[in-house]
């Protein structure tokens, strides 16, 4: 009995460990990773059913007809293979739905009429695969039953959404919109895109150089900047695309004067336990088959619990962040100092849990789509003292350093990194470059007189 009790206790600990590991794994996933994880699980696990779409992946007639047949182990195995092929064919492309929802959530609900919302929905549906809006405004107005002026106004509003460049009429306008948001309107790079984009494509550096009275080195530098722009603002196909648009995990909306956090994961509800296979498992006399389905069912339940915990943790953390940073989200101030450890203490959870939850997650608010981590302060050591320094503080310091630099010998990113280190701020050169670019400040070579 003692041995049996020991084995039971060990099994319980093992199950608890598996549950904790799965929950932590799901907690660290961002929106795109979770979507991919659920799609892969759906392909591999017959106990997971997708119920989205008009009739779901499987219609009621399909389930009934299959259930009429007598079930043997061999027969079910063959059906599983056939079904796997069908599941791969029928797996819905959820990402475009998320994109549409993400675009619409950037628009303040109270600012538009129902008619305008219908027009926005229609125009989003008309985007091509690159994110361009190529339909004429006359045709848009006719098909959407609005005036030409209303269609023009709607397009102007939609061009202000992220990813920058979406709803452009063509590649040139797409790139110009991005340069405008970077504060580069009227620069040499802007002029090259506006007047010499075809020459850029054909490598006619000499033509551009003569036309704008620039050195070839200056032209090449401008072309490098153009290369970092996104020519396909809604490109979700290419794996590892560095310009892939970020789908936020959390949406922050103001309702009746109060900020409310909402997870951008409504699609998860379309994944449910498959009742058809539950019935098979209960009625089958095949022990091996029952064990197989029970194992798959346990895994689905484990995943569902992990997702539930992920949702609750993210909502709790975001709600606490908003309580601390209300002035920032209202647009009335900078971020207040707040570390992950401090927030963890308030929520009575471990700091590592906050860190895992914030990893790679984005929140969409009126300030744009921000990394959740950037809303926290970093604990930075300065001798024996500890100071909380957030992203805005670091940007301000970088801005001041550059304003005070010798324009004949501008500071490189590495020198800025070293200067911050002397002040007790330990950030990488890459982070400095990211903050500098976010401020719209050019590199040292371009700043040199």
Model description:
- The protein is of the alpha+beta class and 449 residues long.
- It has a domain at 378-447: Arc Repressor Mutant, subunit A.
- It is 58% helix and 8% strand.
- The protein is built from 21 helices and eight strands.
- It has helices at 2-28, 31-44, 60-67, 73-90, 95-105, 114-125, 137-144, 148-158, 171-181, 188-201, 205-212, 216-227, 275-283, 287-324, 326-330, 340-347, 351-358, 391-403, 413-422, 429-438, 444-447; strands at residues 48-50, 250-255, 258-263, 271-273, 362-365, 368-371, 378-382, 385-389.
- The protein has a four-stranded mixed sheet with strand order 3-2-5-6. A two-stranded antiparallel ribbon has the order 1-4.
- Helix 10 (188-201) crosses helix 12 and helix 14 (287-324) packs across helix 16 (340-347).
- The longest helix has 38 residues, at 287-324.
- The termini are far apart.
- Residues 1-8, 53-78, 88-94, 236-244 and 379-388 have low confidence and may be disordered.
Question: What characteristics describe this protein?
Answer:
449 residues, alpha+beta, Arc Repressor Mutant, subunit A, 4-stranded mixed beta sheet, 21 helices, 8 strands, 58% helix, disordered N terminus
């Amino acid at each position: 009995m003692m041995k049996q009790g020991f084995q039971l206790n060990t099994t319980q600990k093992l199950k608890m460990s598996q549950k904790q590991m799965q929950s932590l794994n799901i907690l660290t996933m961002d929106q795109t990773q979770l979507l991919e994880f659920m799609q892969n699980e759906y392909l591999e696990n017959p106990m997971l059913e997708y119920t989205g779409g008009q009739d779901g992946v499987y219609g009621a007639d399909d389930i009934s007809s299959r259930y009429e047949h007598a079930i043997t182990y061999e027969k079910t195995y063959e059906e599983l293979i056939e079904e796997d092929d069908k599941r791969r064919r029928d797996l819905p492309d959820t990402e475009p739905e998320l994109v549409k929802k993400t675009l619409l959530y950037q628009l303040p609900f109270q600012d538009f009429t129902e008619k305008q919302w219908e027009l926005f929905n229609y125009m989003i549906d008309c985007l091509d695969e690159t994110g361009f809006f190529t339909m004429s405004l006359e045709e848009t107005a006719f098909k959407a039953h609005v005036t030409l002026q209303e269609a023009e106004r709607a397009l102007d509003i939609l061009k202000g959404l992220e990813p920058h460049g979406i709803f452009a009429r063509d590649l040139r306008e797409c790139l110009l919109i991005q340069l405008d948001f970077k504060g580069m309107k009227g620069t040499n790079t802007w002029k090259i895109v506006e007047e010499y984009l075809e020459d850029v494509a054909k490598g006619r550096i000499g033509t551009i150089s003569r036309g704008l009275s620039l050195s070839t080195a200056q032209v090449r530098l401008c072309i490098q900047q153009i290369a970092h722009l996104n020519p396909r603002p809604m490109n979700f196909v290419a794996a590892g695309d560095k310009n892939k648009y970020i789908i936020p995990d959390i949406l922050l909306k103001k309702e009746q004067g109060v900020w409310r956090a909402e997870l951008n994961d409504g699609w998860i509800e379309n994944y449910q336990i498959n009742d058809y296979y539950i019935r098979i498992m209960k009625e089958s006399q095949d022990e091996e088959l029952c064990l197989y389905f029970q194992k798959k069912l346990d895994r689905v339940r484990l995943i569902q619990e992990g997702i539930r915990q992920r949702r609750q943790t993210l909502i709790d953390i975001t709600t606490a962040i908003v309580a601390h940073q209300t002035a920032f989200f209202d647009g009335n101030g900078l971020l207040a100092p707040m570390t992950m450890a401090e927030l963890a203490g308030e929520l009575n959870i471990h700091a590592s849990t906050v860190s895992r939850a914030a990893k790679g997650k984005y929140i969409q608010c009126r300030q744009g789509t921000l990394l959740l981590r950037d809303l926290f302060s970093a604990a930075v050591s300065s001798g024996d003292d500890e100071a909380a320094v957030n992203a805005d503080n670091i940007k301000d310091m970088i801005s001041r350093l550059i304003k005070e630099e010798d324009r004949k010998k501008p500071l490189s990113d590495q020198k800025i990194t070293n200067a911050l280190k002397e002040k007790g701020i330990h950030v990488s050169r890459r982070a400095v470059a990211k903050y500098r670019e976010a401020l719209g400040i050019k590199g040292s070579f371009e700043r040199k007189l």
